[in-house]
Specification:
- 8% of the residues lie in helices and 17% in strands.
- By secondary structure, it is mainly β.
- It has one domain.
- The strands form two sheets. Strands 1-4 form a two-stranded antiparallel ribbon. A two-stranded antiparallel ribbon has the order 2-3.
């Protein structure tokens, strides 16, 4: 199980950035951080032209509705990027 649902992904997962929301939003890459392609390469997963990658945002929050205290997160819908 993954939070309140099932994580339906496979392969190698990489955390590219960590940021705290201000005013209910966060931007990536954060100011002063490396670009997505540079950060990915630094984590051992260089992005070649024609590569397709899938991204999601993981949010830590208070989950209501009687969930266990350890279920205080969720993630956004994933999206895919075809790098050129």
């Amino acid at each position: 199980m993954f939070g309140q649902g099932v994580r339906c992904v496979g392969g190698n997962l990489k955390r590219l950035y960590q940021a705290f929301a201000a005013g209910g939003s966060a931007s990536f890459p954060p100011a002063g951080a490396s670009s997505v392609s540079v950060r990915s390469a630094a984590l051992g997963a260089p992005i070649a032209s024609g590569t397709q990658r899938y991204y999601t945002v993981y949010r830590v929050m208070t989950v209501l509705g009687g969930c266990a205290a350890t279920s205080t997160f969720n993630s956004t819908n994933a999206f895919d990027v075809s790098w050129q």
